[in-house]
Write a sequence for this structure.
């Protein structure tokens, strides 16, 4: 059969059941992405005879005789397609994984469709941007400022590659060279939530032609570890095996097939015969702590599980002052229990890794990870290899949000490579992403607040139960973090916390943007709203009375010394701004709807505690430009741009004169990873220090060359100005000048976010409409306003997903009942309101060039601000996310019936 | 996604070329559902596109839609002015969770054969009292109202080897006034409740009224009346629907679907009662 793709003719025979997406990728068109493989996300959009289609649903054989265009073929001979240029100009992307499909769709829209983007783009999901930047791209709005230094909208260096489909994500490599003979892995997942594997017969599986290996628990190391990746491996419990004989959640992988083709691997996987002995299961964390509950992990002290017999992975208990006294002194009390649900990261690029042994025998892993260095260390430990015998790297990562601060593909791929000696690829399907990766920890949080009549807090008490699911990855870290800044935000003499992270037979929870704080801030900020109503004090005034100010001790639940400082403080400006905008909003309410407004505040430490290291290496190249190597990964957070801007600012040059290489364990000594919002404040500081050191070295060399003192020389673009003369950098290059920079994540500063909403709620259907969304962020010096705005908008959008629609449904058997995007609704264009973003003008004395972190924290105040606005509109207090009409309508109707005065024909509405 | 268990493909161009049915067969119209989920039981695809059926034909008797008529083609159809119910076509196309890109491939017949509660082509063709024309395995044909064809989620009245050939919509209902109501938990999300009322309000007509409930219920539910009933009577019929009929999935709790169904039924009654002689 003959196919015409991007003007080239190919002779090939697709398999009868093959879709166009994989057929095109087999031909080498890697711009065609897989987000869902089910027609929901649009990342695989191509044109067939000029009409856009989802290539994952298009039978490949039907493309015969038709002209197929992928993102690689969209540009004409004369340069970029206008829509590609528009996405560059507006920087209408973050991770860029959805961009090819987004551009292919946008390029096909007629004027009528462009006028109705919510409908036109309903088949294209973006998890990063919140869609504003995409709307701007389609509207032709330009944001980028070429070669902008610090404070300017420098474009992402990968922009041209992203919009043309050339950027290589994890799976975008051909099976050539070291990957020649690439094998495909498919995982067998247990269908039961709790069981012992009595036997596993792989005879039939091994007999399938093309099968190279079937891996079972017998092949796996006995070694216990955690999939969570932290600077200190002992922060997590060791409770996981690569393959286990005990099943603790439905979806747990129990065997892996490695074969010449995906089809053979799938076929063999289905032929593995497993006999299970079902065991009792427990799905509620409070029930799991009760005596007699099934014990999920029968492990000893070496695993560091706090109390395995009671399924408690980690616990936190602490207090300052005397809450009993504080509540006695209170004139107004509020106590409430607030619950958050199981939500999934839903990064468009699923988890995946490709492993092989190099010619030198080293184990190489090309992975979709936020933590290449920590994963390298973990693999070395797990397989008892010298650290230098393992290399882990990533190119561009298609979104992470914390989900890739986890080793859940590299371990099994490494095992397969070591067993077979051949290159092996594992790419998660979207259903695997939902049922066999990780989620946010669902939490039940009881908050009790006491205050005097004048509004001053007298006591704060919080009781947290966190469902960590079947494995304890991030259980402790999320619990401790969740118990911290939500309380430290407030000045109050008496505070107390009791918290438990608990095993259940639910799918494992893990790291997710906000890392425990979004759950507890929903509780505390909802409770503060209730307290304000009871006191008759408006929510902004109540915050101003009680929030910490520079000089106040930052205390959550104990008085242990810490390294968090007031590097800067912009909370007051954030509160003022949101209050001003909300109070000035005079838009009339939609007729017949209930309208109200609400706010919430959030604080975050700018860096995770107890160490976060980054190294940067910078050198002057022969042509007078620079090469910067950093360890931190780019997954849409925009740190690559920020690093270039920081280095360019220090070196007094432009970002285009610096080439960056990143996220490869072979590049620099160490990097703890792109998590905890550290890409700018830790890794960026390492880059700043490397640039400062190199600058000093170059000035000294130039001064020596000119026989001057270094203070008579300064860098300017591609030269050193020495007095009145210019010494081109190319003349210094032969000296091999280079410098290193290092940051260790201490001391730390604090950042603030305030979110305000004005909402309308329909009194008889429960439908919620967001009329206004305002977000104020205290990010210190904003290195790249365009990108930082995008982080805020994306965080708000992702949080709106969790507040309004997302929910992983676990059925009675413990299985995820909605493992697809059509069952698990993440925000589409139509779901996300435009958020007005305000940056408080502060300069941090700790972060690089005055900057603070701003990637996780915008998520945190969104759900409580929305709940508070809905309460203001309806009188209904929502204590559990998500707020969906089918749960809300009854309460709103009842409240409306109570509040509504008897109809009076003499008054007009 | 790739359907890796499929090892054979048949692309008949005439009915005579249709292969005898085998276990593991699936008919492909648009393929947009088939390729969207694992189909581990399948061995052979039988592609219906080679028949080259005319997608749609309008005449005095009504509208005939080939099962393979794409949603995009249907959406682009310019109906005669006398067909006052025609705006339902665009409204139902827009009720798809899927985007316009999917409309380029998805077919009317495929959507009806899926028989999912939220299938908007089921909503459209049921509300307009359409008829399914089925090729039987023995070479014959049979007909069945759409409301009987769709029996429940992923459950239709086709027997092994049968093919849905076409759907006819009578001019009688196309000429009626229509009212459309739809609710989803999310803006432009999947339909949780979709009600359509049609009313034969022309002075010379019989004044018949039909209310069709889809999306909210596990299968289409239809009430037909010789004339517009009093509001209370219609409400009583709708209120009497048993709980078991309401669908329960991630797209809406059954109690909310019931509530919205009752609300919409009353709104439709009000809308269609307006302007009556």
């Amino acid at each position: 059969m003959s196919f015409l793709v991007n003007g080239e003719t190919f002779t090939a025979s697709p398999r009868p059941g093959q879709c166009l997406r994989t057929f095109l990728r087999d031909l080498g068109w890697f711009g065609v992405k897989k987000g869902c493989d089910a027609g929901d996300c649009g990342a695989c959009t191509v044109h067939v005879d000029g009409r856009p289609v989802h290539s994952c649903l298009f039978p490949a054989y039907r493309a015969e005789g038709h002209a197929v265009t992928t993102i690689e073929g969209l540009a004409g001979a004369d340069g970029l397609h206008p829509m590609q240029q528009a996405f560059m100009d507006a920087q209408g992307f973050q991770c860029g994984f959805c961009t090819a499909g987004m551009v292919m769709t946008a390029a096909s829209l007629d004027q009528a469709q462009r006028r109705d983007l919510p409908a036109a783009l309903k088949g294209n999901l973006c998890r990063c941007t919140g869609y504003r930047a995409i709307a701007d791209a389609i509207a032709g709005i330009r944001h980028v400022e070429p070669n902008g230094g610090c404070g300017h909208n420098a474009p992402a260096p990968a922009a041209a590659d992203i919009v043309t489909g050339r950027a290589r994500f994890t799976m975008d490599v051909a099976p050539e060279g070291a990957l020649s003979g690439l094998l495909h892995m498919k995982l067998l997942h247990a269908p039961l939530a709790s069981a012992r594997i009595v036997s596993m017969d792989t005879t039939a599986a091994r007999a399938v032609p093309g099968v190279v290996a079937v891996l079972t628990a017998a092949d796996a190391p006995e070694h216990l570890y955690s999939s969570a990746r932290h600077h200190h491996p002992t922060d997590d419990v060791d409770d996981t095996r690569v393959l286990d004989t005990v099943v603790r959640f439905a979806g747990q992988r129990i065997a892996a097939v490695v074969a010449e083709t995906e089809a053979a691997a799938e076929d063999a996987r289905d032929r593995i015969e497993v006999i299970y002995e079902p065991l009792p299961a427990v799905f509620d964390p409070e029930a799991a702590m009760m005596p007699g509950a099934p014990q999920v992990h029968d492990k000893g002290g070496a695993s560091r599980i706090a109390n395995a017999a009671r399924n408690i992975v980690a616990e936190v208990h602490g207090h300052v002052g005397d809450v009993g006294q504080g509540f006695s002194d209170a004139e107004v009390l509020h106590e409430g229990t607030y619950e958050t649900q199981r939500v999934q990261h839903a990064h468009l690029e699923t988890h995946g890794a490709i492993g092989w042994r190099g010619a030198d025998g080293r184990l190489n892993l090309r992975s979709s990870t936020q933590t290449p260095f920590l994963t390298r260390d973990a693999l070395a430990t797990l397989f008892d290899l010298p650290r230098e015998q393992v290399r882990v790297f990533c190119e561009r990562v298609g979104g992470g949000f914390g989900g890739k601060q986890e080793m859940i593909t590299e371990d099994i791929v490494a095992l397969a490579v070591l067993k077979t000696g051949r290159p092996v690829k594992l790419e998660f399907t979207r259903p695997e992403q939902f049922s066999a990766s990780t989620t946010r920890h669902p939490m039940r949080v009881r908050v009790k607040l006491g205050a005097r009549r004048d509004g001053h807090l007298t006591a704060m008490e919080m009781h947290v139960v966190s469902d960590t699911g079947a494995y304890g990855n991030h259980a402790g870290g999320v619990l401790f973090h969740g118990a911290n800044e939500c309380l430290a935000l407030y000045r109050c003499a008496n505070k107390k916390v009791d918290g438990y992270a608990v095993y259940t037979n639910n799918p494992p929870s893990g790291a997710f943007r906000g890392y425990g704080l979004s759950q507890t801030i929903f509780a505390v900020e909802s409770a503060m709203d209730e307290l304000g109503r009871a006191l008759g004090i408006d929510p902004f005034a109540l915050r101003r009375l009680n929030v910490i100010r520079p000089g106040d001790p930052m205390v959550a639940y104990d008085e242990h010394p810490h390294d968090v400082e007031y590097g800067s403080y912009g909370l007051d400006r954030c509160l003022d701004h949101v209050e001003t905008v909300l109070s000035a909003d005079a838009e009339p309410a939609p007729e017949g709807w209930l309208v109200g407004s609400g706010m919430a505040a959030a604080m975050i430490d700018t860096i995770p505690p107890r160490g976060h290291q980054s190294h940067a290496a910078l050198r002057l190249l022969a042509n007078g430009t620079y090469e910067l190597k950093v360890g931190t990964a780019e997954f849409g957070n925009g740190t690559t741009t920020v690093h270039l801007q920081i280095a360019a600012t220090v070196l007094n040059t432009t970002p285009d004169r610096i080439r960056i290489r990143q996220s490869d364990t072979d590049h620099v000594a160490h990097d703890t990873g792109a998590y905890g919002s550290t890409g700018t404040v830790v890794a960026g500081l390492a880059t700043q220090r490397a640039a400062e050191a190199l600058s000093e070295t170059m000035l000294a060399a130039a001064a020596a060359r000119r026989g001057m003192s270094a203070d008579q020389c300064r860098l300017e673009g591609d030269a050193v100005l020495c007095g009145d003369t210019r010494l081109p950098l190319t003349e210094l290059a032969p000296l091999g000048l280079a410098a290193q920079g290092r940051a260790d994540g201490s001391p730390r500063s604090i950042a603030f976010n305030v979110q305000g909403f004005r909402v309308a709620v329909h009194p008889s259907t429960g439908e919620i409409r967001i009329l206004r969304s305002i977000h104020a962020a205290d990010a210190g010096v904003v290195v790249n306003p365009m990108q930082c705005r995008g982080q805020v908008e994306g965080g708000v959008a992702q949080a709106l997903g969790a507040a309004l629609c997302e929910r992983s449904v676990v059925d009675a058997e413990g299985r995820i009942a909605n493992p697809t995007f059509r069952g698990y609704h993440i925000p589409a264009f139509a779901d996300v309101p435009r958020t007005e973003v305000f940056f408080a003008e502060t300069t941090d004395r700790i972060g690089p060039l005055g900057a603070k972190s701003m990637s996780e924290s915008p998520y945190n105040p969104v759900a409580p601000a929305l709940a508070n606005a809905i309460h203001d509109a309806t009188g209904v207090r929502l204590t559990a996310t998500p707020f969906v009409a089918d749960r809300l309508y009854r309460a709103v109707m009842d409240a409306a019936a109570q509040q509504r005065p008897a109809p009076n024909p003499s008054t007009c509405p | 996604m790739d359907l890796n268990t499929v090892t054979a493909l048949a692309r008949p161009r005439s009915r005579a070329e249709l292969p005898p049915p085998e276990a593991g067969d699936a008919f492909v119209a648009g393929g947009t559902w088939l390729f969207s989920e694992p189909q581990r039981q399948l061995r052979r695809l039988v592609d219906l596109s080679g028949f080259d059926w005319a997608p749609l034909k309008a005449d005095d008797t009504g509208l005939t839609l080939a099962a393979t008529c794409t949603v995009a083609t249907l959406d682009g159809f310019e109906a005669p002015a006398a067909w006052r119910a025609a705006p339902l076509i665009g409204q139902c196309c827009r009720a798809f969770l899927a985007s316009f890109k999917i409309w380029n491939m998805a077919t009317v017949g495929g959507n009806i054969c899926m028989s999912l509660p939220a299938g908007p082509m089921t909503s459209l063709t049921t509300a307009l009292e359409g008829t399914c024309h089925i090729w039987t395995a023995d070479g014959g044909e049979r007909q069945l109202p759409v409301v009987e064809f769709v029996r429940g989620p992923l459950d239709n009245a086709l027997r092994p080897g049968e093919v849905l050939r076409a759907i006819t919509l009578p001019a009688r209902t196309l000429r009626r006034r229509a009212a459309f109501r739809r609710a989803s938990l999310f803006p432009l999300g999947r339909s949780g409740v979709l009600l359509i009322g049609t009313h034969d309000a022309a002075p010379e007509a019989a004044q018949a009224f039909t209310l069709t409930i889809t999306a909210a219920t596990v299968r289409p539910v239809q009430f037909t009346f010789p004339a517009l009933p009093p509001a209370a009577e219609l409400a009583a019929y709708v209120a009497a629907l048993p709980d078991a009929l309401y669908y329960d999935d991630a797209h809406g709790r059954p109690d909310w679907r019931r509530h919205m169904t009752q609300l919409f039924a009353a709104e439709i009654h009000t809308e269609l009662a307006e302007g009556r002689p």
